[in-house]
Specification:
Rossmann fold, 24% strand, alpha/beta, 37% helix, 6-stranded mixed beta sheet, 246 residues, binds adenosine-5'-triphosphate, 9 helices, single chain
Length: 246
């Protein structure tokens, strides 16, 4: 049986009277790569915040690495790396110092990891540069490096491709594939760039107006596309009822 590392049971989130997440039940299997798709305001970031502990759900529960108790979930969160909305960076500190502080915070004893991650993310030559002088794409890459400092087993990235140029997108794809294949990292990625998600994802969840309206594997998606003759955007629009702008 495939190992489920995260499972949500009926997660709902209300902001005041507005129901942003409505009874969400999803499960993430070890080593799969999930594309999380939905139009603006569908609830992607809200769910990612719940999964990473930035937001308490109004109702519902979830298990993480087989643990259900809140105190155990708290401990298991150290195996999650994430970038949600703008990465939390100290802009007056260098890239290296930001990573080093994160390394100490998460308790990773490997002192080489910061330089290694700077190299992997193509930022080594800027290691001593203040983050306030970084471009958006450089901050984005540093944010992903920050998420990797704890050597996570589950990486949750909200719009990781935003702000990256085509070369960096392709390098990030290679890196994420490598993390998945060689380090067994499970990935949960949101993006509006469907063609890019398609190149990586093994599975998809489609969220619409706070509800999961579709879950399918990459093979199932391929079959749908070939039987309907639709492209990715057309399929997505047909699933969400034609009123999306993703
Ligand atoms: P996008 O693709 O634009 O980032 P999203 O799918 O990530 O959108 P969320 O940010 O999760 O969507 O927002 C879901 C809904 O909840 C939206 O209608 C949004 O306006 C609302 N919302 C989000 N955060 C808050 C908040 N702090 N207070 C009130 N409403 C909020």
């Amino acid at each position: 049986m495939e190992n489920i590392i995260l499972q949500t049971h009926g997660i709902s989130v209300k902001y005041g009277n507005f129901l942003a997440l409505d009874n969400i039940s999803i499960s993430l299997k070890n080593k799969h790569i999930y594309g999380f798709i939905g139009e603006n305001g569908a609830g992607k970031t809200t769910l990612m915040k719940v999964l990473t502990g930035l937001l308490y759900p109004t109702s519902g529960t979830f298990s993480l690495f087989g643990k259900l108790e809140p105190s155990d979930i708290l401990k298991m969160r150290r195996y999650i790396g994430s970038t949600i909305e703008a990465p939390a960076l100290y802009s007056e500190y260098s890239a290296y110092r930001n990573l080093e502080l994160q390394r100490i915070l998460v308790g990773n004893p490997d002192k080489e990891i910061c330089d290694k991650l700077l190299g992997i993310m193509g930022l080594f030559e800027f290691k001593d540069k203040k983050v306030s002088k970084f471009s958006m794409g450089m901050k984005q890459r540093l944010g992903i490096a920050m998420a990797l400092v704890s050597k996570p087993k589950l990486l949750i990235l909200d719009e990781p491709i935003n702000g990256l140029d085509p070369k960096n997108i392709s390098e990030l794809r290679t890196l994420l594939k490598k993390l998945n294949e060689e380090n067994d990292v499970t990935l949960f990625l949101s993006s509006h760039i469907l063609n890019e998600l398609y190149l990586l994802a093994t599975d998809y969840y489609i969220i619409h107006k706070g509800k999961i309206i579709k879950s399918l594997t990459h093979d199932e998606l391929d079959k749908k596309l070939s039987t309907t003759g639709q492209n990715l955007e057309e399929y997505f629009i047909s699933v969400t009822g034609g009123d999306n702008n993703a």
